[in-house]
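Running low. Got one?
___
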Amino acid sequence: MDKALIIADPHIHTWEQFGLSSDGRMFKRLAEQINVFDQITETIFKEEIKVVIVAGDLCHKVGEVPIEALNVVGDFFSKWRYNGVKIYFVDGNHDIIDRKNPEWYESINTLFDEDEGEPEGVKFIHFCDEVDYASIKGHDLVVVHQTPIGARIGNFEFKNGVNWKELAAHNKMVVFGHIHQRQELAPNCHILGAPMHLNFRDTGDRGVHIYEDGKLRFVKLNSPKFITVETSADVVKGDGNYYRVLHAEERSEDTNVINIVKPKYFEERLKNQSFHELLSEWVEINKKPKEYLEVLKPIIDEKFQLVKKVFKGTIQKIVIKDFLSIANLELNVRDGFIYIKGANGAGKSSIFEAVYWALYGKTTKGLTGDDILRDKPTLQENAVVEVFLGNGNGQGLIRRTRKTGLEVYKNVKDEVPVTEGMLQGRRQSLLEELLGIPEGLFLGACYFSQENLKMLTGMGDTDKTNLITDMLGFEIYDDLKNKCHEQIKDYNINELPGYDSEIIEYEKQLAVYNSQYKSTEQDIIDLENRRKFFENNKIRYEEEIAKLEKEILKLPTLESKKYLSIGNIEKHILSLEEDKINLKNSILVLEKEKEQLDVALLTNRTEISALDVQCNLNSDILTKLKTKIAKLDTLVSGDRCDSCNTLITEENRKIHQAEKRKEEAELTNLNIPLVAKSREFGLESKRIENKIFELNLNKRDLVNHIDNTEGEIKQANNKIAEIKEFEYERKGKEDNIRHKINMQEASIEMEFKTKVEVEMNIIEKKGALKDIMSSREFAMHSISGVNNKIKTVSSNIEKLEFWKEAFSSRGIRALLLDNFCNEFNSIIAKYVSLVSNGELTLLLNPKSMTKKGEERNELGLDITNKGAIRKYQSLSGGEKRRVDVSLCLSLNKWAANRHELPSGLLGILILDELFSYVDHCGEETIGNLLREEGINKAVFVVAHTSSLESFATEVKEVYKTTGETTEMIKGGEW
């Protein structure tokens, strides 16, 4: 075979992301692809290539290729063929509409494939071909557009695919298209990779390959790269590459840069993670004694200490029979971006309604009972949905039928379900216990349907908070709140009334003893003296407390240290930021003025050129006139003219000579003002050049001023940090003194208790009426005991009321949202930046403001569009969809992180008809993102958005085969 150049996966397309080219005539990335093909053309001519093999995926969009893409590839193919190059095509997954058995008219390559067949010694394996290893042997070159086993995309490795080792063992050279990352599987087996970077997953050098004499040689091509960096400082401005900044401080105005702006961090008001530590922290925050924890001991049992377990496996297969419009359908679930298409009413959404019904006995459309049966009103006898789940240790089965309800098998081979003999309500509870996924979590993180979209943007602050607390598993707090309420109710009904009756009886006895108490007055005097002793001690302790309070007053303050207030520094920073903006605006004004001067300079130079041309033309005519005049001087009378054969006389010679001299004078006078005007334009050009030089100097001064301003801002921020450090140290000293004060106050309380004990001892020893005093003391002690019991019960009720409030939606769970917001915001920052090219940001705030400006511990959602705060309702339809998709993916990612699930909840994410109003650029960004999400989970997308289909790893088409009944899904790997 002749020396051949092989191109794999060029994906020519009018990529709208990143905008238009510099001339505004086409999209920037299409222009860059043209530049890559120009380099390929140069390589073909330089290397004297006579055979070109396009190894699949010529264009990106399936079935609806833009006319610009068709014209681009057609133009290059015509150039190559004009120079004697033969072009051969391997059908890739993006080249054909039907991935199983395509007809000739379903392939885009049919438009360009003039050299049909295969070069001598070469075997093509198209995307739709079954690989017959037994027959594919002895070829010089095998070109495959399929996934080889072991191919990688980033850190992901494909476990299934073509056995490349078998092909490489029996053929001289094997090359693969389809995977865009260039890789060497063996010395004679290569993955070619795309000729240029196509998205931010791409790394390494890109180009084409030349096959010659049984060897493959890589030819690097120059094109923009997609680079992911940590900070904006890592971006090389103006190098033509595309950047994704992971930790940016603000959005970028550079169209080649997507900044993922670091979200605001909310200081978490509760620091602890374990349940009991949270309770202790809550007591401390509310300045309650630790005894408040004792009242919870009878209420809290072991189950409140356990973290809810979530099923770590995935859904592997779905089998549906006679459910809604589906007669009989089986769907194997595997990782990837699976695009579900089909006519309206074909049953696309019914597939996933069936999963929801199997797991929770509900549909998003609110259908119940016989409404879920197929072919109303002549209903089928039964509807059956089976969901097979695997977790690496086997496979379980969830089956729900209209007749028998829910059945759960821990192993598909079991004959008897674990739900045998249970009521349906208990069966559902058991399933949710086994899965650990309540319905709200499934709808909030797995199944996003427009019929019942649990989306934060459509909820009030209270509803948002309730949704998230449900997803966080906060039902534990509802249980505890109810238990506190029941205990309070028991105290008020069963204990306090009995204590009241005892008090009345003891008070009657005490009245009798009090009538005899007067004889103990002397004892009272002694007790008073003793009491004064304790009061003197109290005064001494209080004086010590006063000294400590003065120590607090002596501690240095911000004013004593002559620190400026943080507010003033921040105002100064704002002023500096405004100065920086004004300086940048001044630079823009200078640059605009320079642009105008450049135009004027160009105009002057054009005028000078035109004047010079006219002067040169006149000079040429003068030269010719002078020649003619000189010739007239040589003429002799009587001769005849060489030109007109007229007889020459002295008179007509002089007349003719005078006419020519007049023309000479007129042309000479005509050139004089032209030369002067040219000189005038030259002087003006010099003046403009001097002005441009002056403007450049001014711009440099403004840039230096901006750098100085940024230095001042940094110094101001350092000063703020210094003030905060001072305040922290001062608080530590004050807390230490406060602790000493508390110790003195504790001593006062201790001596007070001792004083009471002394009084009781004196009363017992003094007096002649020992028996009466004993009886009196007994009565008083009994009253005190009952009062203590009442006090204890009342204290317990007070503590339980405190915990009842703590376990309500306004208590602990609201503060726990701080941690959730920080986790969620760190996730959604990436998603929303990517789908909006850095124009949108979303921030979930653990606090919201009422219309009256009051702060509440409820979730708020802050949206900014191009730096300006916006309400969700004010966004365009496409912007709303970008926000919705970001929230969907972020909720799923957060749930996966929280429960340590590498494939997310059940390994499945369903997006049902969420892509209306999205433009082509949005489809590109969302398509790339969904393809990336599908690396470790099954991402099902039900939509009529054809561009998304081009990004899918697998496409399934749902269609009806008998009347109104969906019976089959067709399609295949994308």
Observations:
- The first strand starts at residue 4 and ends at 7.
- Residues 566-759 form a domain with the Helix Hairpins fold (CATH 1.10.287.510).
- Confidence is low (pLDDT under 50) at residues 966-974.
- The radius of gyration is 44 Å.
